[in-house]
Design goal:
This protein is mainly α. The protein is built from 13 helices and no strands. It is elongated.
Length: 279
């Protein structure tokens, strides 16, 4: 049995912490054609072993293990999903997509396959296809964390960019889990880009209620307050950024001469979805 990894919503901004989002597999109830218990346990053992090898960077060993799992159970959506992830890590995109599709053909309601396949599509410049699958995952009764599917859908459409859809999906995520920090941060960033500085700062404060500051959130706070004509408050964010994260790229965005902050770059889907495969 592959158990869901334990990672908190507070971790979704920091690159080191969000690594727990690379693979979280939500196993479904056994189908009517369940194999014998011993075979099922062996299959799950090989799948677990494949995930461990993959996370260790041993892709050949991971692939060998997942193939053994598929020999025991050729209908295992878990094994096909892991195989898709392995091939994707090995830059074998055609094989990766083929295995993600096989996972869903055997189990159309497999939320892990849905989310990982959607992330794959989004990173390969197919945001509209990815959006549909993310929304299917979000409304999937087997998905115990639908807010993550909505969050990833929002991140994906930002790469188009479609701020209206993104705002809707982030808002949906927060209706399900108001303590999820990524939607608060992204909504604040959208409002800042829309020159709605009071709303942007209010949303950022909601983020601060549920998560610790990060270089990105401190930078955004400084930008919002600078733009809103509140230099004293902006300086507090700048000082915290430089003191707590002196080597971050966000801290280095200060001009050495003027102390001003550079404007954020356009939305980059690879940056948005970096390590955001939510299951």
């Amino acid at each position: 049995m592959i158990l869901p990894a334990k990672c908190t919503d507070k971790a979704q901004i920091l690159p080191k912490q969000i690594l727990c989002f690379i693979v979280l597999f939500l196993l479904l109830a056994a189908c009517s054609s369940t194999p014998p218990k011993k075979t099922s346990a062996q299959n799950e053992g090989y799948v677990t072993q494949a995930v461990q090898y993959m996370n260790a960077g041993r892709l050949d060993a991971a692939l060998a293990s997942v193939k053994k799992a598929l020999q025991l159970n050729p209908k295992s959506a878990d094994a096909y999903t892991v195989a898709g992830l392995i091939y994707n890590k090995n830059n074998q995109t055609e094989q990766a997509e083929r295995y993600f599709k096989r996972a869903l053909s055997h189990d159309p309601n497999h939320s892990a396959a849905q989310t990982n396949y959607a992330s794959f599509l989004c990173k390969h410049d197919k945001p509209l296809e990815a959006e549909k699958i993310y929304l299917a995952a979000a409304t999937n009764k087997n998905n115990t964390q639908p807010e993550l599917a909505y969050t990833n859908a929002g991140l994906c459409v930002l790469g188009i960019p479609d701020k209206i859809k993104a705002t809707k999906y982030f808002s949906n995520a927060l209706k399900i889990n108001p303590k999820s920090p990524v939607p608060w941060y992204q909504l604040a960033k959208i409002q800042y880009g829309n020159y709605s500085y009071d709303n942007a700062f209010r949303l950022l404060q909601e983020y601060e209620k549920v998560a610790q500051p990060t270089p990105k959130t401190l930078l955004l706070g400084a930008q919002i307050l600078d733009a809103n004509g509140k230099p004293d408050l902006a300086n507090q964010y700048k000082l915290t950024l430089v003191q707590q994260f002196p080597n971050s790229k966000e801290a280095k965005q200060f001009s050495s001469q003027s102390g001003e902050l550079q404007q954020p770059a356009a939305y980059d889907i690879n940056e948005l979805l970096k390590n955001q495969q939510a299951y």
